[in-house]
Amino acid sequence: MKSLPNILTSMRLVLALFMFVALAAAAGAVPGLSDHLEPQTQFALQRWAIYAFVVAAVTDFFDGWLARKLDAVSVWGAILDPIGDKVLVCGAILGLMALGGAQPMVLLPGGLILFREFTVSALREVGAGRGIKLPVTLLAKWKTTLQLVALAMELVVGAWGAFPLLPQDPAVQGPAAIAAHTMFWLATLVTLITGAQYWEQTRKALQP
User: Rounded mean pLDDT of 89-110?
Assistant: First the structure.
């Protein structure tokens, strides 16, 4: 049972990879897989990619909770968990860009989030080499939650036509898109704030 949290984290990595490949294939960006895809197949790929993202996002909560509940916190889990988060978020952003093209309401916040994630990873690597630790803050935990919720909303809006049960009505789809974009920008703002906090922590720690 104590290996269950790590299994969930590993599953998140696998689901993130599947999600990205499925979205890329549906967008026609995977040679060999995307050739001559029927519209129904493209829609199916989009639906399964979003299902995979939602399941992977749920595991982000349960693996940490189970690790504490089962007293199964491990070094391997501590390494895999943030990697799984970043792979899932970055894969979803890249898949969303492939799905929706270069829409400014997606492209700009998505690019800013990617910039922040890679910058903080670099800061952690530099800090680790000098014995500096950057503990995860409460706001950073909320940042991940906001990112996952916002990306789920954006993916549904971007693949709206793939869900027959959703009303194919601009009067419904328009407000849904506005809500998704607003949430995405809110997640981006919190992401940038936490990035600035980590930058300031590292700067102070590196001062002679």
Answer: 83
Closest among 59, 54, 79, 48 to 7, alpha carbons compared: 59
Number of residues assigned to the chain: 208
CATH class of the structural domain 4-206: mainly alpha
Distance CA 6, CA 200 (A): 32
The pLDDT tens digits for 4-24 are: 777 888 888 899 999 999 998
Domain ranges of the chain: 4-206
Whether residue 85 contacts residue 14, with contact meaning beta carbons closer than 8 Å, is answered with no
Considering the entire predicted model, what is its pTM?
A: 0.89
Q: How far is Cα 117 from Cα 114, in angstroms, rounded to an integer?
A: 5
Structure tokens at 89: 């978020």
